[in-house]
Specification:
The structure is a single chain. With 420 residues, this protein is mostly beta strands. The chain has a domain at 249-418: Immunoglobulin-like. It has helices at 2-19, 34-37, 393-396; strands spanning 46-51, 54-59, 65-66, 74-79, 82-87, 99-104, 107-112, 118-119, 127-132, 135-140, 152-156, 162-166, 172-175, 178-182, 188-190, 205-209, 215-219, 231-234, 237-240, 249-260, 264-276, 285-296, 302-316, 318-319, 322-326, 330-334, 340-353, 359-375, 379-388, 400-401, 415-418. The strands form nine sheets. Strands 20, 21, 22, 23, 24, 25, 26, 27, 28, 29, 30 and 31 form a twelve-stranded mixed beta sheet that branches. Strands 3-4-5 form a three-stranded antiparallel beta sheet, with no helix packed on it. It is elongated.
Amino acid sequence: MKYKWISLVAMLGLAAGLAGCGGSSGTPCTTETVSTDCQAPTNECKAAVCTDGTCDETNVADGTSCDGGSGVCMSGSCAAAACTTANEAEKCDDSNECTVDSCDSGTCKHDNATDGTACNSGAGTCQSGACVTPECTAQNEAEKCDDSNDCTADSCDSNGMCQHSNAAAGTTCTVSGNAGECNDAGVCQPTCSTAADCDDGNECTTNTCGDNNMCETANVADGTACGTGDMTCMAGVCKSSGGETPAPQTVTACLYCPMVPIIGNVSVPASATVAPMGPFTAGASTDVQVSASTTLTIPLDAMATINTGTASYAVSGATPVGVDIAVPMQTLTITANVPATIDGGTGTVSMMVGSGATAVTAASSSIFLDLMITSPFPVAVPLTCAPIDSSDPKVAASAVDGCTGEVPPGPPPTVSFPVN
């Protein structure tokens, strides 16, 4: 009988040992030592816990990431202790606009887009991109180069750059509704039989028909009376002679250009000079010359061209309330990390001062530059920028910060001129 009792005790001990091989449930533990006392569950959507001094398991929070045997474009998440998987097509992006990317049971697929699908080929300003299985191909569009000048032949070259060659001298053209002929410089000059054919309707110019049947225009002497009241001619324009002409004013603003291709966010300093050509008188017009310049810094040596662009200004106290100045075509030689100067354009606009205005103010509202890097690799880098408070955190956080130390902290500046 004693032998049998010992055997029974041994069998119970063996059974308990075998039961313990399947996990740590029932194993003594403390909350502080659960990670060492308790075995990790084989189900990654469960976690070991210590309950009433013994090891136990509990479900992890729904949404906890898990593997679940997912493919390269799938992700797993726990739900009620089970690992479920979901396709994530965005993981399959091959950066090719001419493929349609998808995730099929964890495997990425890249099907060709339909031929003709629009794409960005990195083409120049007069090219567009279209998918031709499976590549993005640049296609010339010469109509984008039309400069509205009868005396130039417009074309799009193999680099996607607009070319404007002068038409042969003597080519017929139209200017201001009048017939004319192109000269050697690609300018349409009106033809005439008498001086009446050349009348431009401006009492501050004289118009004659030259011996070559081409119109000739010259300004009358400054101070010649014109219009009504105290109006006189100045540089071929009729304007008020009352009061003194204000001195030009120059301000420097911080322009913020978000999401610039390749470079990222950009902030650049831009200076604008507003120069009245006569006094501001309530109810009268005054010509104003506006010019601007800015800089751009990039981290590589490069050659670039600016094909087109527009610098825009907001005006109060006079009309028009918005002024657009064309940015000239220009070529830039850029040295890495050295600011490259960009001509922001110069233009003259006639402003009609409001009858009740006490001041005329102007400020930059935006600038657009159609920039094309031509070397070391061709890439279009359009810039659309707007003035911003130079102390705004976005300035310092810009990928290219050109404002800090160049523009005084504060909101965008304005110029202001008193009205007589």
